Amino acid sequence: MQHPKNFGTHEIHIDELIERNKDVDPFLIRKWEKIFTYSFDRNASHEIEWSDFYVCLRKIREIYGAESKQMGYARKTLEALWEGLQRLADSDGDELVTIEEWIGVLKKVDQKKREVPKWFSDYKQFMFKLFNVSEDGHLDINEYGIIYSNP
Ligand SMILES: [Ca+2]
Ligand SMILES: [Ca+2]
Protein backbone atom coordinates (compact mmCIF):
# COMPACT_ATOMS: atom_id res chain seq x y z
CA MET A 1 0.00 0.00 0.00
CA GLN A 2 1.31 3.41 -1.05
CA HIS A 3 1.57 6.10 1.58
CA PRO A 4 1.01 9.80 0.87
CA LYS A 5 4.14 11.87 0.33
CA ASN A 6 4.43 13.40 3.79
CA PHE A 7 3.44 10.27 5.67
CA GLY A 8 4.92 10.10 9.16
CA THR A 9 6.47 13.57 9.09
CA HIS A 10 4.15 15.30 11.54
CA GLU A 11 5.23 14.84 15.11
CA ILE A 12 2.82 15.87 17.81
CA HIS A 13 4.01 18.38 20.40
CA ILE A 14 1.18 18.93 22.78
CA ASP A 15 2.69 22.02 24.46
CA GLU A 16 3.11 23.73 21.11
CA LEU A 17 -0.47 22.90 20.20
CA ILE A 18 -1.69 24.46 23.42
CA GLU A 19 0.51 27.48 22.82
CA ARG A 20 -0.79 27.91 19.28
CA ASN A 21 -4.43 27.52 20.27
CA LYS A 22 -4.73 29.89 23.16
CA ASP A 23 -8.42 30.35 22.47
CA VAL A 24 -9.03 26.72 23.45
CA ASP A 25 -8.98 25.24 26.93
CA PRO A 26 -5.76 23.17 27.22
CA PHE A 27 -7.87 20.40 28.71
CA LEU A 28 -9.78 20.17 25.41
CA ILE A 29 -6.59 20.13 23.36
CA ARG A 30 -5.32 17.20 25.40
CA LYS A 31 -8.62 15.42 25.06
CA TRP A 32 -8.76 15.94 21.29
CA GLU A 33 -5.19 14.75 20.97
CA LYS A 34 -6.07 11.54 22.84
CA ILE A 35 -9.02 10.86 20.57
CA PHE A 36 -6.81 11.51 17.56
CA THR A 37 -4.04 9.24 18.76
CA TYR A 38 -5.93 6.42 20.41
CA SER A 39 -9.13 6.19 18.40
CA PHE A 40 -7.98 7.05 14.91
CA ASP A 41 -4.25 6.93 14.38
CA ARG A 42 -4.09 3.15 14.37
CA ASN A 43 -0.61 2.88 12.86
CA ALA A 44 0.92 5.57 15.10
CA SER A 45 2.14 7.69 12.19
CA HIS A 46 0.92 10.92 13.91
CA GLU A 47 -1.48 11.54 11.06
CA ILE A 48 -4.81 10.06 10.17
CA GLU A 49 -4.78 8.55 6.71
CA TRP A 50 -6.41 5.71 4.82
CA SER A 51 -4.01 3.13 6.28
CA ASP A 52 -5.52 3.77 9.71
CA PHE A 53 -8.89 2.73 8.37
CA TYR A 54 -7.34 -0.09 6.43
CA VAL A 55 -5.91 -1.56 9.64
CA CYS A 56 -9.44 -1.68 10.95
CA LEU A 57 -10.66 -3.31 7.76
CA ARG A 58 -7.97 -5.96 7.89
CA LYS A 59 -8.99 -6.79 11.44
CA ILE A 60 -12.59 -7.23 10.37
CA ARG A 61 -11.50 -9.50 7.55
CA GLU A 62 -9.57 -11.63 10.04
CA ILE A 63 -12.56 -11.91 12.33
CA TYR A 64 -15.41 -12.33 9.86
CA GLY A 65 -13.74 -13.40 6.61
CA ALA A 66 -13.20 -11.65 3.29
CA GLU A 67 -16.59 -12.63 1.82
CA SER A 68 -18.64 -11.86 4.92
CA LYS A 69 -21.51 -9.42 5.08
CA GLN A 70 -19.66 -7.54 7.79
CA MET A 71 -16.67 -7.10 5.51
CA GLY A 72 -18.76 -5.70 2.66
CA TYR A 73 -20.48 -3.33 5.02
CA ALA A 74 -17.24 -2.30 6.71
CA ARG A 75 -15.45 -1.59 3.45
CA LYS A 76 -18.24 0.60 2.14
CA THR A 77 -18.65 2.45 5.39
CA LEU A 78 -14.98 2.99 6.14
CA GLU A 79 -14.32 4.32 2.65
CA ALA A 80 -17.19 6.75 3.04
CA LEU A 81 -15.98 7.78 6.48
CA TRP A 82 -12.48 8.42 5.26
CA GLU A 83 -13.76 10.49 2.35
CA GLY A 84 -15.97 12.40 4.76
CA LEU A 85 -13.12 13.07 7.11
CA GLN A 86 -10.90 14.26 4.27
CA ARG A 87 -13.54 16.70 3.10
CA LEU A 88 -14.02 17.92 6.64
CA ALA A 89 -10.47 18.12 7.89
CA ASP A 90 -7.82 17.75 5.19
CA SER A 91 -7.60 21.42 4.34
CA ASP A 92 -4.37 21.18 2.31
CA GLY A 93 -5.50 18.05 0.46
CA ASP A 94 -2.37 15.96 1.04
CA GLU A 95 -4.39 12.88 2.06
CA LEU A 96 -3.15 13.17 5.63
CA VAL A 97 -5.13 14.66 8.48
CA THR A 98 -2.65 16.20 10.89
CA ILE A 99 -3.33 17.07 14.50
CA GLU A 100 -3.48 20.76 13.52
CA GLU A 101 -6.15 20.08 10.92
CA TRP A 102 -8.00 17.91 13.41
CA ILE A 103 -7.98 20.60 16.08
CA GLY A 104 -9.04 23.13 13.48
CA VAL A 105 -12.18 21.12 12.80
CA LEU A 106 -13.05 20.43 16.42
CA LYS A 107 -12.48 24.04 17.35
CA LYS A 108 -15.08 25.22 14.90
CA VAL A 109 -17.61 22.67 15.98
CA ASP A 110 -17.05 23.02 19.66
CA GLN A 111 -17.35 26.77 19.71
CA LYS A 112 -20.49 26.90 17.66
CA LYS A 113 -22.72 24.43 19.39
CA ARG A 114 -20.60 22.10 21.49
CA GLU A 115 -21.93 19.22 19.51
CA VAL A 116 -19.96 16.47 17.83
CA PRO A 117 -19.81 16.63 14.01
CA LYS A 118 -22.14 14.33 12.10
CA TRP A 119 -19.08 12.50 10.91
CA PHE A 120 -18.24 11.53 14.49
CA SER A 121 -21.64 10.09 15.23
CA ASP A 122 -21.56 8.20 11.93
CA TYR A 123 -18.27 6.64 12.90
CA LYS A 124 -19.53 5.68 16.32
CA GLN A 125 -22.72 4.29 14.87
CA PHE A 126 -20.72 2.25 12.42
CA MET A 127 -18.69 0.69 15.22
CA PHE A 128 -21.88 -0.01 17.12
CA LYS A 129 -23.54 -1.70 14.20
CA LEU A 130 -20.55 -3.70 13.21
CA PHE A 131 -19.95 -5.12 16.62
CA ASN A 132 -23.54 -5.64 17.52
CA VAL A 133 -23.58 -3.80 20.77
CA SER A 134 -26.06 -4.51 23.48
CA GLU A 135 -29.35 -2.68 23.32
CA ASP A 136 -28.58 -0.14 26.00
CA GLY A 137 -26.16 1.41 23.54
CA HIS A 138 -23.06 0.53 25.47
CA LEU A 139 -20.32 -0.99 23.45
CA ASP A 140 -19.34 -4.41 24.66
CA ILE A 141 -15.83 -3.82 25.84
CA ASN A 142 -14.60 -7.22 24.70
CA GLU A 143 -15.87 -6.72 21.20
CA TYR A 144 -14.47 -3.23 21.13
CA GLY A 145 -11.15 -4.63 22.31
CA ILE A 146 -10.91 -6.90 19.29
CA ILE A 147 -10.80 -4.03 16.90
CA TYR A 148 -8.73 -1.75 19.04
CA SER A 149 -6.12 -4.22 20.07
CA ASN A 150 -2.77 -3.99 18.35
CA PRO A 151 -2.72 -5.10 14.73
CA1 LIG B 1 -1.92 7.12 10.95
CA1 LIG C 1 -3.63 17.52 5.35
TrEMBL record:
SUPFAM superfamilies: EF-hand. The keyword Calcium applies. Keywords: Calcium. This is Uncharacterized protein.
